[in-house]
């Protein structure tokens, strides 16, 4: 993250207020402003439209907004607030309203709960959260229901060495620098014919070029993946020399390892989709989708700038 503010999408539910707290702390870490956005209910939108159409001066100018009042109470009780805090009521469908405000403000991140009001309690990811993560032209942080807040731990980055956009790496390193924590990088390589001989729980490690060159105990595919990681990570290490980088290469899919890492991570960062494989910004890659569905902590889904919708 660099310039811009942090948007918290709220609907008044306790879960969305957890996302508000995550956004408040993020704004403080990055020394930026906080915009609290609430998409009005259908009844509130109908009221506003009726009043505008009838020009009825006898009706109150402002529809009662209990969500705004609750947000004010929560922020007033917080130990510290960002220097700039503002509230904005939005109209339209939730995904479209948040997509538009994300396009207009170009925030550091748009933060929301994985589920809001309504829906089926058994679902880990609500339809609005999925739609926003899939279409918003900015990074979207999804805070899981009854999950960890991501207060501690490292920033975990899912990296496809050939396809993950630099925007995703930049986001992960900036977040780690703001938190004063490490970046743990997970990349996958094709599983060998006999997966039983390859450990799936490869530990994160700080790997030097000398160790990589002399790593006779590494399988060729693992060594090549770690080497490709180092090549992609080099410019970001130069920009953030104070950020410790730990690497891991795992056979098969990276999603399982990222979900497991989410149990202790401050944040898991994934790219929204593979630009070389998808049909456009409305596609989400299988890894991002799996992590969003099953993560135990906050997940940031980061689109590539050149793939953002107009």
TrEMBL record:
Pfam family membership, one: Usp
Domain annotation UspA: ranges: 6-144, 163-303
SUPFAM superfamilies on file: Adenine nucleotide alpha hydrolases-like
Stretches assigned to coiled coil: none
Superkingdom: Bacteria
Similarity annotation: Belongs to the universal stress protein A family.
PANTHER family for this protein: ADENINE NUCLEOTIDE ALPHA HYDROLASES-LIKE SUPERFAMILY PROTEIN, USPA DOMAIN-CONTAINING PROTEIN
Name of this protein: UspA domain-containing protein
Upper taxonomic lineage: Bacteria, Bacillati, Actinomycetota, Actinomycetes, Kitasatosporales
